[in-house]
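Key idea: predict the complex, not the pieces.
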Amino acid sequence: MNFTIRKGTEKDAQAILNLITELAVFEKEPDAVEVSVEDLIADGFGDNPRFKTFVAEENDGSVIGMALFYERYSTWKGKTIHLEDLMVTASKRGIGAGKALYTAVMNYAFENDYKRVAWEVLDWNTNAIQFYENSGAAVFEDWRVAQMNQENLRKFINENI
Amino acid sequence: MNFTIRKGTEKDAQAILNLITELAVFEKEPDAVEVSVEDLIADGFGDNPRFKTFVAEENDGSVIGMALFYERYSTWKGKTIHLEDLMVTASKRGIGAGKALYTAVMNYAFENDYKRVAWEVLDWNTNAIQFYENSGAAVFEDWRVAQMNQENLRKFINENI
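Result:
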């Protein structure tokens, strides 16, 4: 392998943001990313981090991929891990970095006795879905993701509180 | 209203577990609940709680509904709230307890500057979906929920580490 997997640090924040943005473009939401590199540093690498990361680093020191994850809680199973983002930059696909990052997250969950790892995938991303299913994951057809964004949250509160 | 909304406490753990179990039956997964009341107390009401709750309490002191939620992190928006469970016991539907619990969670998110509230809903639960959409939430058709359970996690790790 021409890369290694290690924990992300504050110094990786810009590279992580670049990968977040590349993933948003891939997911056809190019304007969705509102977080800044300062936000990522404050939210992920301070005293009370909201997420953890693994990065894939090439031998020349460049970060070519990342996995970003955090804890959730299942009222059925107990503490779980949510894999928010898994991304390898387009020019570095096919060398195993994505699987290595995925494996690192799964191993973190296994070693720390988490009861489940969950994530979300777009239904047209069939390559990813096939990879996940081959790894032993289930991709559910009957659950829908619901979201109240901040603008509609404000409207709802103004009308109901 | 014949009920009030308040924060859940350790003393509500059994009532919360009863509602979790009733919801699992409603969701056609009657055997899915593996957490115990002791787990809920340790995980939700200790020094470092993994979730927060609101409960709907009738004037006689009985808990007839609950909302259970916790923080997540969006790499697009920043800190968010995930509403894991929202449940009113079957005999107490239609008196507004569900909307009051939902509103309490939304208000918590709004007052604490969370960027989004997210949750999951079964595609056949059309009453719930209609309520959510009427409130201003989006229910997405194109995202799929993926999960690696602990048994398959163990297999994956044994094969790949």
